[in-house]
Automatic annotation (TrEMBL):
GO terms for molecular function: ATP binding; four-way junction DNA binding; four-way junction helicase activity. Homotetramer. Forms an RuvA(8)-RuvB(12)-Holliday junction (HJ) complex. HJ DNA is sandwiched between 2 RuvA tetramers; dsDNA enters through RuvA and exits via RuvB. An RuvB hexamer assembles on each DNA strand where it exits the tetramer. Each RuvB hexamer is contacted by two RuvA subunits (via domain III) on 2 adjacent RuvB subunits; this complex drives branch migration. In the full resolvosome a probable DNA-RuvA(4)-RuvB(12)-RuvC(2) complex forms which resolves the HJ. This is Holliday junction branch migration complex subunit RuvA. The gene is ruvA. The keyword Isomerase does not apply. Has three domains with a flexible linker between the domains II and III and assumes an 'L' shape. Domain III is highly mobile and contacts RuvB. Residues 64-141 are annotated as: Domain II. The lineage of its organism: Bacteria, Bacillati, Bacillota, Bacilli, Bacillales.
Length: 203
């Protein structure tokens, strides 16, 4: 129904962003809301997927059309819902996901929250060899937003990052396991903490 929304980002939180256009604020669930930090209060184009069920209607936002197409491919797999697909995309390394599917690497895929062996096998059966159209090699860099340097990084950024990881479906135990290692890192932006946390969780 919607392809994209052009407007101003007026809010960024652990689970979603708000894009205002023509006086209307659209709540968009995104893989990593803090990846949009450098665009806050500026005009942006956010690619949108409209998810409709009997009991709810949700809008999902993506930085590129390729990211949106990969999301659509993921939710077409039985056993993967929108939240599961967001967690996969939030890793910031969709090329690794595509590679794991093509290699039939179930061990890598089951590290994402909500994806067990049965779902990982279904992902491979449904998507192997079918993702080049949405993410050819020369487009893989589009899924790596530029790093955002905070003027005064603090533990607030780390706290926001941990909340974002929780929103993606990682358990308190999993987050606690990596939080100590993140605290020892040099000060980073929220987006960078999220990406580092996901690297540790998927490592």
């Amino acid at each position: 129904m919607y392809e994209y929304i052009k407007g101003t980002i007026t809010f960024i939180g652990p689970e979603y962003i708000v894009v205002e256009t023509n006086g209307i604020g659209y709540l968009l669930l995104t893989p990593n809301p803090f990846a949009f930090s450098k665009y806050e209060q500026t005009n942006v184009t956010v690619y949108v997927y409209h998810h409709v069920r009997e009991d709810t209607q949700l809008l999902f936002g993506f930085m590129t059309s390729e990211e949106k197409r990969l999301f659509e491919k993921l939710i077409s797999v039985s056993g993967i819902g929108p939240k599961g697909a967001l967690a996969v995309l939030a890793s910031g390394e969709p090329s690794h996901v595509v590679g794991a599917i093509d290699r039939e690497d179930e061990a890598y895929l089951i590290k994402f929250p909500g994806i067990g062996k049965k779902t990982a096998r279904q992902m491979i059966l449904d998507l192997k060899g079918k993702l080049d159209e949405v993410m050819p090699d020369h487009l893989s860099g589009l899924f790596q937003p530029e790093k955002v340097q905070s003027a005064a990084p603090s533990n607030a950024e780390l706290e926001e990052a941990l909340l974002a990881l929780e929103a993606l479906g990682y358990s308190a135990r999993e987050i606690k396991r990596i939080s100590g290692r993140l605290e020892k890192e040099e000060a980073m932006s929220t987006d960078e903490y999220i990406r580092k946390g996901l690297q540790l969780l998927l490592g």
